């Protein structure tokens, strides 16, 4: 039984929490801005739990979708479904259970408008793994799925349809996700080309570094715009400047397009999310425990 639970934990990437961080930071940005400070703790708890549960469910569905691809990719051939340590049916059941728990939590705490948005978020998360077979912009689909927590946060806090500030923040998260997931795809590009998998890294080809740099610049512009719309002060804009330096560092890592360094650049984005959050929290006088 213990061995089985360990396989389930690997299936949903509890040993690699980077996806949780990248999904959590935008949700926290939006919650704090929408509440203009610390949000209600029950709403905060539902969003944090929802992030963990939905990211975990997404990983299970992703591995189900890629079960015939992962054995041929060096980075993924050890995943439980790839080496047939788990049955594909188990991944589907686990994803359904985790999604159901997340939806139940949302129904107990959140307002009806936010619950409708949560259902849409579930559909986005479940459909993303199949997009790499259909078009060259699966990273955009992922970006929309990851950014969906922003309008959800605003409706949860205000009970009203989100305004311009929320949608500018939403756009920033989409662009940020496309940028960092392109870094991730750059690490797998050679394997993906052999397998016929589509990605922005393949689409951008030799212009990949330039494309990522332009996307990163647009992220800073959009977040600065959100700061102006939200009346965020100097602490926030200093945080954005620090975030811009992290993007410069990521560009230095991918200079030679070495797969391991591309993954390091991807992982570095967890710190970008943290820095932006600290800027927002500082503006509202919040502090981390």
Features:
13 helices, mainly alpha, 289 residues, single chain
What does this 3D model show about the protein?
The chain is mainly alpha-helical. Helices cover 74% and strands 0% of the residues. It contains 13 helices and no strands. It is globular, with a radius of gyration of 19 Å. The two termini are 36 Å apart. The model has no long low-confidence stretch (mean pLDDT 93).
Counting DSSP H or I runs of 4 or more residues, the number of helices is 13
**Strand-residue proportion:** under 5%
Structural class: mainly alpha
Q: What is the typical, i.e. mean, pLDDT?
A: 93
Apparent shape: globular
- Strand tally is 0
- The stretches of 5 or more residues where confidence is low (pLDDT under 50) are none
SSE string, helices as H and strands as E? HHHHHHHHHHHHH
Binned, the helix content reads over 70%
The first-to-last residue Cα distance is: 36 Å
For the largest beta-sheet, the strand count, sense and barrel status come to:
none
- Rg from alpha-carbon coordinates: 19 Å
């Amino acid at each position: 039984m213990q061995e089985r639970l360990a396989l389930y934990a690997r299936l949903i990437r509890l040993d690699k929490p980077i996806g949780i961080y990248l999904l959590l930071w935008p949700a926290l940005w939006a919650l704090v801005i929408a509440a203009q400070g610390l949000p209600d703790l029950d709403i905060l708890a539902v969003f944090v739990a929802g992030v963990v549960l939905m990211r975990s469910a997404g990983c299970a569905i992703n591995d189900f979708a890629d079960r015939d691809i992962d054995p041929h990719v060096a980075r993924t051939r050890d995943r439980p479904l790839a080496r047939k340590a788990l049955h594909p049916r188990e991944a589907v059941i686990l994803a359904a259970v985790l999604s159901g728990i997340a939806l139940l939590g949302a129904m107990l705490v959140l307002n009806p408008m936010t619950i409708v948005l949560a259902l849409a978020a579930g559909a986005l998360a479940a459909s993303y793994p199949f997009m790499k077979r259909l078009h060259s912009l699966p990273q955009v689909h992922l970006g929309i799925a990851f950014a969906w927590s922003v309008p959800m946060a605003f409706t949860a806090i205000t009970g009203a349809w989100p305004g311009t500030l929320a949608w500018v923040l939403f756009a920033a998260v989409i662009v940020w996700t496309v940028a960092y997931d392109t870094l991730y795809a750059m690490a797998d590009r050679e394997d993906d080309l052999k397998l016929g998998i589509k990605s922005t890294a393949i689409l951008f080809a030799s212009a990949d570094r330039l494309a990522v740099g332009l996307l990163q610049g647009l992220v800073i512009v959009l977040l600065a715009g959100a700061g102006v719309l939200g009346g965020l002060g100097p602490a926030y804009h200093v945080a954005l400047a620090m975030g811009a330096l992290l993007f410069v560092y990521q560009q230095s890592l991918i200079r030679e397009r070495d797969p391991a360094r591309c993954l390091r650049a991807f992982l570095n984005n967890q710190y970008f999310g943290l820095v932006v959050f600290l800027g927002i929290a500082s503006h509202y006088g919040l502090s981390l425990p």
